[in-house]
Design brief:
Elements lengths: L2 E5 L3 H12 L3 E6 L5 H9 L3 E4 L4 H4 L4 E4 L8 H8 L4 E2 L1 H6 L5 E6 L4 H14 L4 E5 L5 H7 L4 E5 L2 H5 L8 E4 L14 H9 L10 E5 L3 H7 L7 E8 L6 E4 L2 E4 L5 E4 L8 H16 L4 H10 L8 E6 L2 E5 L6 H9 L5 E5 L12 H7 E7 L4 H7 L6 E4 L2 H11 L5 E4 L12 H13 L2
Parallel strand pairs: 1-2, 1-4, 2-3, 4-5, 6-8, 6-9, 7-8, 9-10, 10-11, 11-12, 16-20, 17-18, 17-20, 18-19
Antiparallel strand pairs: 12-13, 13-14, 15-16
Helix pairs in contact: 1-2, 1-7, 6-11, 6-12, 11-12
Length: 443
């Protein structure tokens, strides 16, 4: 019996283990951290052997194949030992794709992928499609393949998930953009990160489609290196002969088999970045066969994504916006660009090799205060101390919100858009956003 070892027992790992067990493999799960109770219960329910707080080499290095959590870096000691023994290492998505014939709609990008993924899912679901939501958002793809039978999956893919995907193919691949992110995981080499993102189009054929932002300079340069067989479906903020989705005279337009247009102000999502998200989602839904009427309804009724420019409350004339998902500089740029009132900006966390110069002009133009929230804020001080803007350092979310409120004036906005990962002070990005909302509520 073929032996599958799963490293990491969170959402993706636990789901992969259940699918592997269903398919008749000898399965073992190992996690260096403590496994959450709900995943222990799931593994126990299916009779899957697991361990936590350690990696027992004798139980791992005898694997025929290893399914690795995307959170485990390639240079982790156990991964290095597996590579020395030439044991194949794959992702949960790669494994799950072997056991379903469903159509795969896959979305990646440095920014916008969660919103775009959620919007595509919303449109298809509302149109009556039998569709699952998976990947970096939603439930484990492997668990859904094991327990349900969807015709379509809408999958958000991070660069870490793409790294360990080899034979998997997207029927519709969506690439929002490529800007510097996670460089600490890619030897601080931008090209390594770019190569990872471009894996979204691997294995595509002429029967597939590739949706992408036509104006992204990195994507434009990378496309010259590839012989792409899939149908090319570029979009842009502006009308041109080279794109099929754009805005013209404040009208949202998709030039599909049946041309589609609607007033831009009818879109549920506002802001330039959300225009790109809406164009990508509309084109993808059109490719999937959704009618114009259903696309229009989906674009009008979508309610947005938690922790992405989410209104967190208004206190005595000060608006608080939770953009905790902005874990890189480009995401913060779009958030700041959408601000229409004087802004107190919250930055900081675990730096991923950030270059803050991208937001310098917007900080000068929009910001009346900066609050740095991290264990080590030295890089932020080096970047922004010369701006002549009030700056405060904090080590907790309560102190952060209190300092922001002191700096803010009635009619201004406090924006949590940190540019950084959350792991120095918080469990994750969601925890950071939830604490922000709770502290605002308690003002």
């Amino acid at each position: 019996m073929k032996r599958i070892v799963v490293l990491g027992a969170a959402e993706s790992g636990a789901g992969a283990a259940v699918l592997a067990k269903k398919e008749g493999f000898d399965v073992f799960v190992s996690d260096m951290s403590k496994i959450k109770d709900r995943y222990k219960e799931l593994l126990d329910k299916h009779g899957i052997v697991w361990e936590e707080g350690q990696h027992t080499e004798s139980l791992i290095l005898n694997a025929d194949e290893v399914i690795k959590s995307p959170g485990i870096p390639e240079n982790a000691p156990m991964i290095m030992k597996l590579k020395e023994k030439n044991i194949p290492i794959i992702s949960e998505i790669e494994f799950a794709g072997r056991y379903t014939d469903a159509k795969m709609i896959c979305i990646t990008g440095s920014n916008g992928k969660t919103t775009t993924t959620s919007l595509i899912y919303h449109i298809l679901k509302n149109a009556g499609y039998n569709v699952g939501l998976a990947g970096n958002i939603g439930s484990s793809l492997a668990l859904q393949v094991a327990e349900q039978n969807f015709d379509y999956y809408v999958i958000e893919l991070s660069s870490f998930q793409l790294d360990n995907m080899y034979d998997f193919k997207a029927d519709i691949a969506v690439l929002m953009n490529i800007t510097p992110d996670h460089l600490d995981r890619y030897d601080f080499k931008m090209q390594n990160y770019v190569d990872s993102k471009m894996r979204i189009i691997q294995n595509q054929t002429e029967d597939d489609a590739f949706v992408f932002w036509n104006d992204d300079p990195i994507v434009a340069e990378e496309l010259k290196k590839y012989n792409i067989k899939a149908k090319m479906c570029p979009f842009s903020e502006f009308k041109s002969n080279s794109v099929i989705g754009y805005v013209d005279a404040d009208e949202y337009v998709i030039e599909g088999p049946v041309p589609f247009n609607m007033e831009q102000e009818e879109l549920a999502l506002r802001g330039k970045h959300n225009l790109y998200n809406s164009l990508a989602a509309g084109i993808t839904a059109d490719l999937a066969g959704v009618s114009n009427e259903q696309i229009r309804e989906g674009l009008k009724t979508f309610e947005g994504v938690e922790h992405r420019l989410e209104k967190a409350g208004r206190v005595r004339g000060v608006e608080f916006i939770n953009d905790s998902k902005a874990t890189n500089v480009n995401a913060c740029w779009y958030a700041l660009d959408s601000m229409r009132t004087p802004t107190v900006l919250i930055l900081g966390g675990k730096d991923k090799g950030n270059d803050y110069s991208e937001i310098f002009d917007l900080v000068r133009e929009k910001c009346i205060g900066l609050v740095f929230m991290g264990v080590d804020n030295s890089k932020l001080h080096a970047a922004f101390d010369g701006f002549g803007i009030p700056i405060a350092d904090v080590k907790s979310m309560k102190d952060c919100v209190d300092e922001c409120y002191k700096m803010a004036k009635p009619g201004s906005t406090v924006l949590l858009s940190p540019c950084c990962a959350s792991f120095d002070l918080f469990k994750n990005m969601e925890d950071r956003g939830e604490q922000f909302k709770e502290c605002v509520k308690n003002l």
